[in-house]
Amino acid sequence: MAREAREEEGYVVQRRRRLLDVETILDAALACIDERGRLTMADLAARLGASASSVYHHVSGRPEIVEMLRERLVAHLEIPPLDRSDWGDQVASWMRSYRQALAEHPNLIPLLSEQTMTAGSVLLGYDRVADLLGTAGFPEDQVMLWVSVLDSYALGAALDLAAPDEVWGAGGGDTPALEAALRAAPQGRARADAAFELGLEALLAGMRSRLPVGPV
Amino acid sequence: MAREAREEEGYVVQRRRRLLDVETILDAALACIDERGRLTMADLAARLGASASSVYHHVSGRPEIVEMLRERLVAHLEIPPLDRSDWGDQVASWMRSYRQALAEHPNLIPLLSEQTMTAGSVLLGYDRVADLLGTAGFPEDQVMLWVSVLDSYALGAALDLAAPDEVWGAGGGDTPALEAALRAAPQGRARADAAFELGLEALLAGMRSRLPVGPV
DNA sequence: ACCTGAACACCGTTCAAGT
DNA sequence: ACCTGAACACCGTTCAAGT
């Protein structure tokens, strides 16, 4: 295997198939991150069955791999459809898909937030959001502020996803109200999901109440 | 200098003053981070005028230094005073002081978010917030969710502070609404500050509107 | 064109040896 | 008790040499 026969000028040429390409490198890199929570070139090369130096014939280095993972992650986001439905619903579904994409690879989040998270298709999405907010009636000089607010909330919620479960319980007895609240709430991922939805609704409700004119 | 005279049993003993201690190590580490945006043991040792290995007689290693910087940062936070003023005002001022503390060392934020950010005095603050929210009338099983929401927003806003200015302008012509919004808004740090306040108000307004009974 | 091993500079950390 | 230089294991990256 790992060979292909190619007919050329009447000769049958046995040629070694390329061992590596960018897509398989990215797949293996994501596997490293998902399974071990970090990305080293040695681990990556081992998974690929190649040497670490081989990788450099296809990508410029580790930073570019992380960048490409960001692009790939973010390329699958559904851009808000810009239809005639409620602007808040459209913003909410965009926020959900953004967070959902991050949620599928929580170990990737710390690597992505080494650089800025806001690039590529995320920018396209926020362009639509800016459009929606302007059309909805927000003052021109406020639109960018609301976009920043939504971005902050989405990133913070993503970090919340990547954080371990027990962080809130570390008070050791001197945080009684927090511990009681913790016991009464859903646990782990279910809490992160419920909190995200609750906060998103509150944020959009607060935005709506600040609209100069009422919604159509 | 760097010497002290100590009288002991009638003899005057010239003794070298301890070259290093935890506080000076933390000061130098913060200087590394503020000035270069990263923390290496070599850079740290150079600033201290000592060898890298000396540092290990006072701290267990680099991770503990970062942990101690987190504790020091967060130790200066004003815990909400639990007075009879409006719960929203108290939560808002706590959120502001949290973000303000992070804003003073933006380069520290990525290092802190390698681990979870929520520990120490931050937990104490959220214990007060949980108390406030319960007293304000939020259902017991929602209190922890709102705490998570506030935490997400504070962390996201902190990441927004650490991010460079030009991220939103990278659309290159195919994000016209975003670019128009960007031009109409305040720039840089002023935008981050205005966005944080606007979003915080909206979030608290949305929370208020979800209170089962009206505020006292 | 693609892959490799060896080498390099740079990390954090350890430790035997000094005072 | 505190500090040091040398050494170590482990990073990402480069490059001359192979096919």
- Class from helix and strand fractions of chain A: mainly alpha
Overall spatial form of chain A: flat
CA-CA gap between termini of chain A:
63 Å
Biggest sheet record of chain A: 2 strands, antiparallel
Number of helices of chain A: 10
Protein architecture, described:
2 copies of one chain form a homodimer. Chain A is mostly helical and 216 residues long. Chain A has 10 helices and 2 strands; from the N terminus they run E-E-H-H-H-H-H-H-H-H-H-H. Chain A has helices at residues 22-36, 41-48, 52-55, 62-75, 87-103, 108-112, 121-136, 140-162, 176-184, 188-209, and strands at residues 3-8, 11-16. The first copy, chain A, has a two-stranded antiparallel sheet with strand order 1-2. In chain A, strand 1 and strand 2 form a beta hairpin. Chain A is flat and about 60 Å long. The model of chain A is unreliable at 1-16 (pLDDT under 50). The interface between A and B is large, with 68 and 68 residues. Chain A binds a DNA duplex (19 and 19 nucleotides) through residues 16, 18-20, 40-42, 50-54, 56-58, 61-62.
